[in-house]
Amino acid sequence: MACATWLQSSSLSYSYVLFPILSRRARLPTNLRHFHHFYSNRRLCSSKTLSRPPLMDVSLQAKRGFSFKEDEVAYPADLYFEAPLKIVEYPDPILRAKNKRIDTYDENLKKLVDEMFDVMYKTDGIGLSAPQVGINVQLMVFNPVGERGEGEEIVLINPRVNKYSRKMVLFNEGCLSFPRIYADVERPESLKIDARDITGARFTVNLSGLPARVFQHEFDHLQGILFCDRMTEEVLDSIRAELQALEKKYEDKTGSPSPEKIDTRKTRKAVAGFGKS
Fold first, then answer.
1. CATH value at residue 94
2. Where is the composition biased (Basic and acidic residues) (predicted)?
3. Rounded CA gap, 197 and 136, in Å?
């Protein structure tokens, strides 16, 4: 089981140097692994500091389809799971399903979080969202170091984005739901978010660099958005064969037609959230 460190401060700030992975293909250099530490008053102190441009209010994205509607609340049955958890792969429709808001903070939720960290480490990931293990609720976990016992294990429940930077960064991402596929995705360098911790307490956090990248990738999953949705057509063409292979794998496994076909995919002009539509 993963032993998580829960974020409980009302105002936290993270920064990290960029490192081109979202699934851990290589170990971080030793001098970059000490991501942060807590003081006795639970105020977080980052070991690295990045200069960040001013953040832009995310409400400006509303015209591009970003939803502020209150989400449906999850029932206990929605959080039911059996260990060990397994990664859901593209093009399974679970990855596109609506994810419900968590309103119950109990031992079952803590066990689910532990299991998510466990499968994340076993699959060499540094971030994981609940829909990626077949549970359609608004929950994500990540550890930018990607090593059990190193760095900090971060849990975000019902996250919302308040602001994001105008500065965009191109970054080579991977995804556990797209095994062995890596491609460039452009996202804002930094952002400010609200979320709840494992006890249900609210907090606000500023993220930049790698933590911001991981958060945005996993937050997209909670919106039913996949990283291939944010790729340019040129980048998408470079991984077309791999996506087709995953579609065929799904058809062979289920005996049903793939719910998505990269060959007939229409450009998603209004993917919710960040950056250029």
1. 3.90.45.10
2. 249-265
3. 18
